[in-house]
Specification:
By secondary structure, this protein is an alpha/beta fold. It contains eleven helices and 15 strands.
């Protein structure tokens, strides 16, 4: 599939500029059938429409020529295939959407998960290094496993308050910070937090990141995201809608906390990174956080309001342990998932400038997860 997105505006005479700056740079998108690849193409088409029809001045960095390639066209685990594709298309950027995403199956097929999620990105990185292309790789919140915590020591806070009143320096009263009455609160993960994957899938995604950085160093661009959904492909929202139409009741996990992210919003952020030639490790999810149970409940509430569902079903909260036990009784083993994997998007938000063409589109990327969900569901109604 080919989409030409040219951000350059026509001249006053109506003829396009032929300066070298307007020569399209080629972007290859792997995993063309994935929901993120489809979202990237959809957002790219919106950018092109904006450039063609807007009377406003658009700050540009490059015109783009896009090629989304399926696995049959580009197998990222085949070095010879990658080299041939690079020779044919001569890309300036590669956006890697190809991935092994079967989290539970990876527990029994770690070799294949590592082949796609670790070897594949490494081979892409090596070819990018040889050709001078840039690589943007999409990773996962599942590289984290524990909880990044903020420690709130109530006794220490009281001691600090007393010290301020008495004029005593705070550091003289902080020994009570080790008081066992302190409360540990999870906080969203930042890019510098140490990964600690709990599953074969999470391990394979982390290994892919590490191999890319080993090849490309500071020139690598890695975007970790969480709980991705959209109108394309298989995802939690579409699964829930289908079950709500066909089942009288549902059980949904209540003790795993993360943040849903709309694929179109992530796609918009990825194009900003490409157009601004940014590199580094970044986190992106929608704003806020919820459990899978809260997510499912909100899907039903909004779907009913939009007439995507005719009647509500009973949604029951269930713990991860109970859900895993039920699955095991059916002969299905589940991968261990993080109890908390909310991502802090602050670095990405502060990195991106505010004067590019994409920001003339709707500000979907920094919305609360409920708002993003509503926009996606409206497209289905």
């Amino acid at each position: 599939m080919k989409i030409v997105v040219t951000e350059s505006m026509p001249t006053q005479s109506g003829e396009a500029s032929t300066t070298e700056a307007n020569i399209p740079q080629v972007v290859l998108i792997t995993g063309a059938k994935s929901q993120l690849a489809q979202a990237l193409l959809r957002i790219a088409a919106d950018i092109g429409e904006l450039a063609l029809n807007s009377n406003a001045s658009i700050s540009t960095s490059m015109p783009l020529e896009l090629y989304a390639l399926s696995r049959s066209q580009l197998d990222i685990t085949d070095a010879a295939n990658i080299a041939a594709v690079f020779e044919q298309y001569r890309p300036s950027w590669v956006i890697n959407c190809a991935a092994y995403n079967a989290v539970d199956a990876a527990e029994h097929d770690a070799i294949e998960a590592n082949r796609v999620n670790a070897l594949g990105p490494e081979l892409l990185a090596q070819q990018c290094l040889l050709s001078g292309a840039r690589l943007l790789h999409v990773s996962s919140d599942y590289v984290f496993g524990g909880q990044a915590v903020c420690e709130i020591a109530h006794a220490a806070e009281r001691a600090i308050g007393d010290a301020r009143e008495s004029g005593v320096e705070q550091h003289q009263n902080l020994d009570s910070a080790s008081n066992p009455n302190q409360v540990h609160l999870p906080r969203p993960f930042v890019e510098l937090d140490a990964p600690e994957p709990l599953s074969a899938y999470g391990t394979s995604k982390l290994l892919g990141e590490q191999r890319i950085v080993a090849v490309l160093g500071d020139c690598a661009t890695i975007v970790r995201t969480s709980w991705l959904y959209g109108q394309d492909g298989h995802n939690f929202v579409k699964t829930m809608l289908n079950l709500m139409r066909t089942q009288p009741s549902l059980q949904v996990i209540v003790d795993q906390i993360g943040c849903p992210t709309w694929s179109d919003a992530l796609a918009k952020l990825i194009w900003q990174l490409v157009m601004q030639q940014r590199s580094g490790v970044f986190h992106y999810s929608a704003q806020g956080q919820c459990s899978w149970y809260e997510f499912a409940s909100e899907i039903q509430r909004q779907a009913l309001a939009l007439n995507l569902l005719s009647q509500p079903v009973d949604i029951q909260p269930i713990t991860s342990a109970h859900y895993a036990k039920q699955a095991l009784n059916r002969g299905v083993g589940l991968a261990k998932r993080p109890s908390y994997s909310v991502l802090n998007s602050g670095k990405l938000r502060s990195t991106l400038a505010t004067n590019n063409a994409l920001l003339m589109l709707e500000q979907i990327e920094w919305q609360d997860w409920r708002q993003q969900l509503n926009r996606m569901l409206r497209r289905l109604s």
